[in-house]
Specification:
The complex is a heterodimer of chains A (433) and B (321). Chain A has 433 residues and is α/β, with parallel strands linked by helices. Helix content of chain A is 27%, strand content 21%. In chain A, the strands form 4 sheets. In chain A, strands 1, 2, 3, 4, 5, 16, 17, 18 and 19 form a 9-stranded mixed β-sheet that branches. Chain B has 11 helices and 9 strands. The chains are: A alpha/beta (433), B alpha/beta (321).
Chain lengths: 433, 321
Amino acid sequence: MSTVLREVRPYGEHPTDVLIDGGVIAAIGSGLDGDEVLDGTGCVLLPGLVDLHTHLREPGREDAETVASGSAAAALGGYTAVFAMPNTDPAADTAGVVEQVWRLGRECGLVDVVPIGAVTVGRAGRHLAELGAMADSTARVRVFSDDGSCVADPALMRRALEYVRAFDGVIAQHAEEPRLTEGAQLNEGVVSARLGLTGWPAAAEEAIIARDALLAGHVGSRLHVCHVSTSGSVEIIRWAKSKGWHVTAEVTPHHLALTDDLAESYDPVFKVNPPLRTAADVEALRDALADGTIDCVATDHAPHAAEDKESEWGAALPGMLGLQTALSVVVETMVLAGRLDWRGVASRLSEAPARIGSLAEQGRPIAVGEPANLVLVDPAARWTVEPAALASKSRNTPFAGRTLPGRVRATFLRGRATTRDGAVLTGVVSTAR
Amino acid sequence: MSRHLLSAGDLDRAAAVEILDTAERLDRALAGREVKKLPPLRGRTVVNLFYEDSTRTRTSFELAAKRLSADVVNFSAKGSSVSKGESLKDTALTLQAMGADAVVVRHSYSGAAHRLTAWVHGSVINAGDGTHEHPTQALLDAFTMRRRLRGGEGDLAGLRVAIVGDVLHSRVARSNVLLLSTLGARVTLVAPPTLLPVGVEAWPAATSFDLDGVLATSDVVMMLRVQRERMSASLPEGARDLGNQFVPSAREYARRYGLDARRMAMLDGDAIVMHPGPMNRGMEIAAEVADDPKRSTIVEQVTNGVSVRMAVLYLLLGGAE
């Protein structure tokens, strides 16, 4: 069956028709015909979004999220591929676990679920996991991370960076010097001092980024920095890139939008790691995303069961939902603010993360013959975030009650619509990859 | 006054002075009575919800509530469902279902009292939350200063107060800085740099690392309790967990920041010495200072604590009706 997207604007530019047939973009032009027509007047067409940093919680915490529920949230948010972090139970540190996650994603079929492998056994930071076995598995792992924990041992980090060169892998580092963040609850500064919450100093992030950039430069490896949150980190990454080293970085939507003073309510929905920072940090992150110092936006979608958030701040688990709000937050903080055009959105939310994660079929140009991984966005529509209406099994969105710009009209995975106007379409499962 | 007392910052000058005036009035009403009881909270239930051991604060609130004829229930974390892992939310819902009019909460987590307000309908009084605040301690301290140095009325305009010690981990310091500055006092925080929080520059207080330099110009010197586990020398040799070391040793701390007889002699005429208790005699305060009949207000503070907590309960629970 073929579909015509009528009068859509690729990258927000000139309106045209786009014909999807046989899983690919079959034609672009005016007056195209197909079995089905979707009127996309006014809507922006982008390559399907790719999230380098998602927590799907399966196996282990299926009460908080599953591969299926997380895939639905992703598709509704405009994503066609998500990278699943390995801090599951058991950790995804063997070929067996990454293949399990990969297979669950395939069976669901709403997005490409790409497992990230743990760098160390049990994410304990002591011994390298069998990175090669995960790379050679059906899941074809290329991104490795102990996310949630930092690979703090400098010698181990060096070896990991070197080792993955054999299969063009990348180490995605959760940059947090653990001795500087013992018991840390909130960005260390004026707000933490007033609230009596143990501070999480910016230097604990920046010190690890500087160290790892030097190591990556020394051994010629690829380093990816997860969830950059401080202005100092931006400066270090800018410097590392100026050296020609292979350093890439991501920023989360919440670090682009929210600041640490939200903790004044002591509501742990605003507790996240790394923590929300200051308005000056937010400004620096927006600038860095605009100028490319930060390559991409990644959600760090972190679902948590209600009982893990309805508690004292210090007892709550850190993390926020992100898949269904990420695009809207980027539209609000970057596009409407005039800092990023729609070409830029395609770059930061699709092309760059696909490239960093070595996904050949994602983040492709909108051109004839290319795989039809696409998202259609109504930039004028506004919507109010209702936690209970989200597809995730958890409710911990920091944007509850906020009205955000930009609605996903439809998402296409290899030509098949996975969502349409906020509804998940479960039909023939698309299995190729 | 609003429904809860969570932070000393919730009180403006008028509200703070009203509490202090009410405490004076209640104190006078009880003075000389054979039966130390007033009727305004008869039939009201006050729950003391204590997640940390604190005999003095719990007893003080209990006496305050009983002197106003309220029914008092002590709900301590030990030996209750709390020790079996019940969440704060479920405990709150239970207390709510039992009809608590006020919950006095002491908790090791900062913000616990704030969280409780989401789950109970009654008043929440913060009796110390983690390293955040302890507003009734600040009120009793202000009450004590006002009686000793301002004739028991008005505010504390121009009073020079030095707060000395582990400011970083002190809920007493945070509440006092907020309340005392609201009342017009000029606060100076004195501590080694490791025990002042990053971000302290935004507080309405000056800071100093030099106790000797501050004493001669202070009307009040408030010593804070310093916990031994903050001292690196208290860690066993070769400890695997390095812990968090803020000060090299107790001896060095006492030498640089302890209030001893030599330092007390530097104080001006009527200056007073305060301590929220419990004290480490010989560490932050020498015995002869703590027991000095002229300057030490430490025992008085305990007495005043009951009066101030009576005033808070009375005003929050609408005892005026």
